[in-house]
Each structure stands twice: as structure tokens, then as C-alpha cells.
């Protein structure tokens, strides 16, 4: 079904289908925690993630402002999802794409990127522009040294927040008919939580905007102290979330609390969620489910609360990391 076709024209682009994703009540989590938990299912986007939204906004703005000539190359540093959205949209608009991912990116995501025509380069880390080996440094340097390339730079591009402020936030408000007490999302670039948080706070300043990062990420420290930590803990990379620098796309004033969770808890949560509901959820979505379980006492949900949790992508992107191995173990134990 055509979800969104603003302009009347013969050709229908994939980008016409970005956004207007459903919200579904999750009976499993709602009854487990005796409250009302709704999932904003972003894997219904054409690129199967929330990152199609900023990808479209960044591309459209670059073209509008003449930052790139027809046939040029969009360049991005990505944990995979923004890269895929970007590559998919760039291709159908007649542009090429070059995506820098870190070595923690799942093999599925690398394959998906290549399949849509992106040139992919794997880097050591995604520690920000000041690290020579990072995805961000390599992407910026590539765009600076090659002609007709544009680095969309989701970590510092205002179109990232704008995409969520103009689309995801209003959708949630309308779908929930203004009845929402909490919005919870993982933080990577900060675009989602800042855009949705800003929109919802403007509608009702009492809505709680809560973020999630993996253990070792420094964003919760920054929220509390407004400084960088003097000592860094070991960072547990969960694809798409957490940072060891403060991204410009994070408007910390839109966020009330940031929680932390580890990899092991997130992996178990993915399995438990799958067993209870039959859904394969993405890694950072599993981290959100694990966060509810680990912090449930301090979250202090009431029976009347209405909580929207944003699932940015789908578990099929993480078969090798979250599901396949366990399936094999189960198969073996069945045989025994
Ligand atoms: C799987 C996943 N979860 C969460 C996020 C975080 O979203 P944001 O960058 O808007 O903070 C991302 C971002 O790339 C992601 O790919």
C-alpha cells in the first residue's frame, strides 16, 4: 500500500514510502511490567530502519543547496543503517555512495550495503573525527580529497534531528492521540531522541524522554555533569548506539535520563523476546528490552503510564550476532 505520495508524478520512488510506520501495543512487555508499552516499529521503512528518515532529509538538503552535482557520490560514516538508507535513496536519485563502517558492523549489513551498489570500507572504530582510524575521519577525508563527493555527516548534520522532529515526533503524537507519558530510544548520533524529544516536549513538557547507551559510552556522564569523563570504562559496542565523543546531533537538553546496558543482557533479551513473541528484534531494540528488565525498579512505571519505545531496525540484520548461533545450539541439543 502506498503510505505517502506527496507529489503527483508518474514514477513512485522508494523514498515516498519512508515514514508513517506503525505503533503496536506490546502485550508481552505491558503485562510483564503491569503498564502500557507501545513499540514504534521503524523496521517498516523501505530500508528497514529509522535511519531512512535522516538519510532522505540529508540527501534532499544537499541537492537543494547545490552541495553535490548530479552523478556525484554521497559519503557517510555509519553503523550500517544510515548507510543503507543513503545508498538506496542515492541510487534511485542517480547518485553513487561510499559508506565507511566500523569492524563491529554485522556481516549482513555489509552485504546489504554492497547489494544496493554502495562502495564499502571497513575501519577500525567509530570514535569520531579526531581519530585517524575512525569511520568519521576516513569519510570526511575521502569526501575532501575526491571530486563531487558530499559527506552527509549524520553526527553533525542538523537535518538528522530535523527528520525526526518533522516526521517521527509528529507521527507518535498523532498515533497516540497525545496520550504518551514516556518516550524511550537508544542514542547513537542523538538524532532520534533529540528530534522526537524536542517535538514531544513542545507538546507536553512533562513527557519523560529517556535514552539508552551501552556500558562504557559517555553520554549519561555528559548528561549528568556536562563534561567529558576523566577516565573511560571499556566500551561495549552495540551496533548503532553509544559513543566515546559527544555528537553534535545530540541535543542533551531534550533528554531527561540516560540508562546503560551491557552486551550480554541485550543478547539474552533478544532470545527471550523472540521466545515470548516470535519477533526477531534488532540489537539496539534488544538493548532497550534488556534495559526495561535491568532498571525496572528505578523506572517506577505506573499502571496508567503510556510508554512508547522506538525499535529502530529488525533482527534479520543480526542473525549472525543474535540468533543463528543459538539456533544451532538448540538444534544440537535437540539431536542429543
Ligand atoms: C540500530 C540502531 N539503533 C539505534 C540508533 C541510534 O539512533 P540515532 O543515531 O538517531 O541516535 C541507530 C543509529 O544508527 C541504529 O542504527
From TrEMBL:
> Domain of life of the organism in this record?
Bacteria
- Span of domain Tryptophan synthase beta chain-like PALP: 15-313
Q: Which UniProt keywords apply?
A: Pyridoxal phosphate
Q: Report the cofactors.
A: pyridoxal 5'-phosphate
Record field: transmembrane: none
Q: Which GO terms describe its biological process?
A: alpha-amino acid metabolic process
**Which InterPro entries does the UniProt entry name for this protein?**
Cys_Synth/Cystath_Beta-Synth (IPR050214), TrpB-like_PALP (IPR001926), TrpB-like_PALP_sf (IPR036052)
KW Transferase (keyword) present: no
User: Which Pfam family, just one, is annotated for this protein?
Assistant: PALP
This protein's name: Cysteine synthase family protein
What is the organism field in this record? Sphingobacterium alkalisoli
Amino acid at each position: 500500500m502506498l503510505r505517502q505520495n506527496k507529489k503527483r508524478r508518474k514514477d513512485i520512488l522508494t523514498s515516498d514510502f519512508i515514514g508513517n510506520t506503525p505503533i503496536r501495543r506490546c502485550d508481552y512487555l505491558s503485562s510483564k511490567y503491569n503498564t502500557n508499552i507501545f513499540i514504534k516499529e521503524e523496521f517498516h521503512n523501505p530500508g528497514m530502519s529509522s535511519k531512512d528518515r535522516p538519510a532522505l532529509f540529508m540527501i534532499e538538503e544537499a541537492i537543494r543547496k547545490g552541495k553535490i552535482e548530479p552523478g556525484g557520490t554521497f559519503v557517510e560514516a555509519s553503523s550500517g543503517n544510515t548507510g543503507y538508507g543513503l545508498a538506496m535513496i542515492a541510487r534511485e536519485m542517480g547518485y553513487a555512495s561510499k559508506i565507511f563502517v566500523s569492524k563491529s558492523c554485522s556481516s549482513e549489513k555489509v552485504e546489504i550495503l554492497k547489494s544496493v551498489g554502495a562502495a564499502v570500507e571497513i575501519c577500525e572504530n567509530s570514535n569520531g573525527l579526531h581519530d585517524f582510524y575512525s569511520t568519521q575521519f576516513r569519510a570526511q577525508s575521502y569526501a575532501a580529497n575526491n571530486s563531487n563527493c558530499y559527506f552527509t555527516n549524520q553526527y553533525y548534520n542538523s537535518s538528522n534531528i530535523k527528520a525526526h522532529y518533522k516526521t517521527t515526533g509528529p507521527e507518535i503524537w498523532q498515533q497516540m492521540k497525545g496520550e504518551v507519558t514516556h518516550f524511550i530510544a537508544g542514542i547513537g548520533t542523538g538524532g532520534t531522541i533529540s528530534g522526537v524529544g524536542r517535538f514531544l516536549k513542545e507538546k507536553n513538557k512533562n513527557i519523560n524522554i529517556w535514552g539508552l547507551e551501552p556500558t562504557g559510552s559517555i553520554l549519561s556522564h555528559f548528561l549528568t555533569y556536562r563534561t567529558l569523563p576523566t577516565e573511560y570504562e571499556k566500551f561495549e559496542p552495540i551496533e548503532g548506539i553509544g559513543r566515546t565523543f559527544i555528537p553534535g546531533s545530540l541535543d542533551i537538553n531534550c533528554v531527561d535520563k540516560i540508562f546503560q546496558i551491557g552486551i550480554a543482557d541485550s543478547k539474552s533479551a533478544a532470545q527471550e523476546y523472540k521466545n515470548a513473541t516470535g519477533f526477531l528484534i534488532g540489537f539496539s531494540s534488544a538493548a532497550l528490552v534488556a534495559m526495561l528488565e535491568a532498571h525496572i525498579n528505578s523506572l517506577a512505571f505506573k499502571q496508567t503510564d503510556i510508554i512508547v519505545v522506538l525499535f529502530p531496525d529488525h533482527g534479520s540484520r543480526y542473525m549472525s550476532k543474535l540468533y543463528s548461533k543459538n539456533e544451532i545450539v538448540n538444534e544440537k541439543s535437540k539431536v542429543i
